[in-house]
Amino acid sequence: MDKPANSSIINVCIVPDAAVGAECVAISQSLKSDGTVFVLGGDRFAHMTAFMARFAEDQIDNVVRGAEKALQAASSFTCEHNGYLMTEGRYLEVSYRKSPDFMQLHEALIANLAQYRINPGNPYEEGYFTPYTAGQQRNAQETGYDLARDLYRPHITLTRYTEGGVPAAFPALPEAQLSFRLHKVCVYRADDNGAVYELIKEFQIS
User: Fold this and answer.
1) Which of 65, 178, 188, 196 is least surrounded by Cβ atoms within 10 Å, i.e. has the fewest?
2) pLDDT in tens, 70-91
3) How far apart are CA 4 and CA 31, in angstroms?
4) Has residue 191 been placed in a domain?
């Protein structure tokens, strides 16, 4: 299927506090090599996807209103760092505990945003983790986000490696304090790798 015209990937993401964000950038920068596709820094900053899907441009205002409605009942909670992960898609991530608080926020966003997604019954296969497994395809059809629900994994991406560029041994990473309290959720346009680049709306969570 060709990429739908006049559409954008919208990433509703948690932005960590400045200290944790800076630490993630520093760790990411330390990984830079000929084998990395990107590292954090400059216009690439630390963020954690809570929900992401493709929407027609004329639905973006509805997405913002839906996000606002989903976040009205949200309250701050601790995003608990519990290690690092190298994914099958060659992404290296900071991992966070998949707590009930995370899932409540995730499901609230699905409930208020999924109805506006493009091609609900026949979703375009995005390129983050392709080809889709049966579980990814089901999630994409039901929510617009292939890594939703049972496959949802709270994380901050540090880098992605090229084909053949993944280190033979897991890179040595610091035992940094990367837990933080959730206080900021933002709606961004994202590129084909899911990296955010244009702020649409920012919400403060108390």
Assistant:
1) 65
2) 999 899 999 999 999 999 889 9
3) 34
4) yes
* Residues of the domain holding 119: 7-204
**How many angstroms from the chain centroid is the CA of residue 101?**
16
What's the rounded mean pLDDT across residues 177-189? 97
3-state class (DSSP) for residue 77: coil
pTM of the full structure: 0.91
Which amino acid type is present at position 50? A
Give the number of domains in the chain. Answer: 1
